[in-house]
Description:
Helix 1 crosses helix 2 (25-32) and helix 2 (25-32) packs across helix 3. The longest helix has 13 residues, at 36-48. A 4-stranded antiparallel β-sheet has the order 2-3-1-4, with helices on one face. The chain has 2 domains: 3-48, Winged helix-like DNA-binding domain superfamily/Winged helix DNA-binding domain (Arc Repressor Mutant, subunit A); 61-142, Lrp/AsnC effector binding domain/regulation of amino acid metabolism (RAM) domain (Alpha-Beta Plaits, 2-Layer Sandwich). By secondary structure, the protein is of the alpha+beta class. 37% of the residues lie in helices and 19% in strands. Keywords: DNA-binding, Transcription, Transcription regulation. This is Lrp/AsnC family transcriptional regulator. Residues 6-69 form the HTH asnC-type domain. Pfam families: AsnC_trans_reg (PF01037), HTH_AsnC-type (PF13404).
Amino acid sequence: MDDAALDEVDRRILALLQQDATLSNQALAARVHVSPPTCLRRVRRLFERGVIEKQVAIVSPEKVGAGLTGIVEITLDAQGAEHLSAFERAMADEPAVTQCYRVSSGPDFVLVVQVPDMAAYHALAHRAFTARGNVRNVRTFFSVHRSKFDTRVPL
């Protein structure tokens, strides 16, 4: 679904759901000024078209024992499409890797990892990065303070 296919009602629905996905259909409909059946139909359409990928609960890493955040740059030795895809598949299977981006100009990948402590990071780094034959360079930055975290997409 392209940006032009979203009308103002869709944008209001998306803005509200990004703030609070627990809103009932009735409450959401009232806030966007449409009938509940219309609202439900629009939300379903946004899901079907992939505009809304999923609804989740955002958990505080510190409160569940995963308070160390690492931002990891990975450079591979071989950058062929099959090598890049293989690395992405491996990272998809790593629970501590919460985000994986293929990037241009610089490293091949930037990852965000959540681990309990440095010992857990070292185990992850060995298992997922240095033990892999195709990883040339790993550079990790550890967060000392998170001043902003938002999952909303500007509309």
